[in-house]
What does this fold into?
Amino acid sequence: MSGERPIGVIGVGWVGLVTAACFAEMGHEVIAMDIDADKVRSLNQREAPIHEPGIDELLERNAARLTFTTEMEHVRESARLLFCCVDTPPTYSGDADLSRVQAVVSQLADDGDYALVMKSTVPSGTGRAIRRDAPGLAYVSCPEFLKEGTAVDDFLHPDRVVIGADADAEWAADEIEAIYRPLGGEIVRTDVASAEMIKLAANAFLATKISFINEIANVCEEVGADVTEVARGMGLDKRIGPSFLRAGVGYGGSCFPKDVSALKQLAGNSGYHFQLLTAVIEVNELQKRRVIGKLQKHLGSLVGKTIALLGLAFKPDTDDMREASSLVLAARLQGEGAEVRGYDPVAGDPARELLPGVGLAGSAEEALDGADAAVLVTEWSEFAELDWKSLRDRMANPLVVDGRNFLDPRRLRDAGFQYEGIGLANGDSDEAASAPESAQASSR
It folds into this structure.
């Protein structure tokens, strides 16, 4: 059994590090490999390269069970199950870039005494292609379903664990099931192609739910309805549920945009036009730009106006800037001639090189000093706790556009602000803060 040998993890980015640390927390010895020597050096000193709640404590508590290395040979010779957690970013065509996966496979023996377990998100058919090129390599698909900001809890308390294996890799699937069974999630045993598709389909469905409620929000603004009330009423239907029904400026992060695009492209490569996902992507892109119209409604031309973006990461409790709404908003505001400032509690450094020309502040108060408007982009809890009454006097114009329906509209108006939410019927809803789970939550 795998308990007699270490678990191998290849690639210690966000998914790989959480995977390695959580396996160690479960009592397994883990050998994790990455080609980035600086990252490996930091991890061996128990310094995490990412911001993820709980990860620092896991690294410290399980130091004796965690080894980080740059040597693939170390992992290959020690472990029986090799969990592949390398990145698969989108290419310009929308397909997943599998070059890192291919680099891993090229370093594995066709008849090695181990199995490659694919955690990375790959198109359905990848396992078949790998097996064709390396027929003696045992291959299992075991996609991850983690959300950034809650990844440790998601790993240790899964809804389900999907394991896809063909007949010749059943021994590896059995060992993987034995590892995960103590966590209590339902085990889904299936074939490789179906396991690969489950991950893409799940993320595409959640993204569709987000774009749908954002479309409803836009209609609500036109007819005088309140999207928070509409979402609450919808979510009480057990067939629908409340999750991912919070209107906002759209989804972002490392998974939803990439996976929706990859599934659309996979369908297209197979000869099928996935019209629904085409609309989902279009709605998400347009939603980010609606904030500009809300600002112009109150300020007129944005030329020379100072706009403060509160929150830069794609969601709270992470420093991940991938596909963050702040990137689009900042670029559009600059295109309209505005001066843009930004503040994020943890994503300041990653944002610096991605937001050229944006003044990064050290606090929300600094960002709002003299600003003509504030746009809440990421729902960090500290923004709800700001002394908005005192901030009203520090701003040139007391206008808040709440891109997540996160702040308390009544409190803002009592402090002297003009308040604009998303889908709130002229910004008049007082129920925004109690809306259901954020639509911006990622599957990772």
Q: What stands out?
A: Confidence is low (pLDDT under 50) at residues 427-444. Residues 2-190 form a domain with the Rossmann fold fold (CATH 3.40.50.720). The radius of gyration is 23 Å. The longest strand covers residues 160-165.
